Amino acid sequence: MKRTLFRTRIKFCGFTRPGDVRLACELGADAIGFVFAHGSSRRIAPAEARAMRQALSPMVDSVALFSDNPAEEVREVVRQIRPSLLQFHGSEDDAFCRAFGVPYLKAIAMGSPIANEHPAALQQQYPSAAGFLFDSHGAGGSGGSGKVFDWSRIPAGVQKPFVLAGGLTADNVFDAIIATMPWAVDVSSGIESAPGLKDGDRMRRFVEQVRRADCHVLD
Ligand SMILES: O=C(O)c1ccccc1NCC(=O)[C@H](O)[C@H](O)COP(=O)(O)O
Predict the structure, then answer these.
(1) Is 30 a catalytic residue?
(2) How deeply is 3 buried, as exposed, middle or buried, from its count of CB atoms within 10 A (0-12, 13-18, 19+)?
(3) Does domain 9-214 have CATH number 3.20.20.70?
(4) Tens digit of pLDDT for each residue in 4-59?
(5) Domain spans of the chain?
(6) Phi, psi of 161 (to 5 degrees)
């Protein structure tokens, strides 16, 4: 398929330091993710996220990530951070995800049975989702694993924009984009020197490879 003049959006996820947020914006990130999932080494408190939200450049989106957090916690994050988008990694249903009045992405655990469902079933299950995010973890597992899944398992014909995640790095993101043609790519581990600590050189190389893929004319 020919896809020229397309700009793959880039989401960098799992920030814990405002300086990293500033650098990510300068390097060309379209969205910055903050993790509120329990048990994550990248989990931050709403007050910390507020400081990082202030470090965001104009026209860069903020994304708040959850995994079966209680509704009260999601509400508190929405109140304090005003994220542009929510991202749910757990077993949340559509009614839960849409209840906060903020557009949301539903993460699909590609290691779980839901991943084998027909795209129409996914869409029926999450009619209000702004899009899907395909990630490598299994049901009950968490994101940010740094592991790649088999991209050929992405259900064909999903009618909503989708984000490709899971183990992306500057070394594989070009191939990942050519193989799957996602709306956006999402990376956490692949741009870090340690969990939550982003690395400027890895972020820059990642952006370069995404842009290289965008310039690649496909027949
Ligand atoms: O990052 C976490 O620790 C995390 C915990 C629970 C739910 C989601 C989490 N992160 C999601 C992401 O950072 C990304 O959306 C995605 O999983 C990509 O991560 P990675 O494979 O490390 O690039």
Answers:
(1) no
(2) middle
(3) yes
(4) 679 999 999 999 999 999 999 999 999 999 999 999 999 999 999 999 999 999 99
(5) 9-214
(6) -60, 145
Reported as a single tens digit per residue, the pLDDT across 82-124 is 999 999 999 999 999 999 999 999 999 998 766 677 778 889 9
Q: In this structure, which amino acid lies at residue 166? A: G
DSSP state of 65: E
The pLDDT of residue 119: 78
Ligand 1 near 167 CB (within 6 A): yes
Position in ligand 1 atom list of the atom nearest CA 192: 22
- Which runs of consecutive H residues, i.e. helices, occur in 118-172? 119-125
Torsion of CA 88, 94, 96, 102, to 10 degrees: 70
Q: Check whether 133 has a pLDDT greater than 70.
A: yes
Cβ of 207 closer than 6 Å to ligand 1, yes or no, is no
Enter the ipTM.
Answer: 0.96
**End-to-end Cα separation, the chain, in angstroms:** 6
Distance, CA of 31 to CA of 46 (rounded, Å): 18
* pTM: predicted TM-score of the whole model, two decimal places: 0.95
Q: Do 26 and 60 meet the contact criterion of CB atoms below 8 Å apart?
A: no
25 is catalytic: no
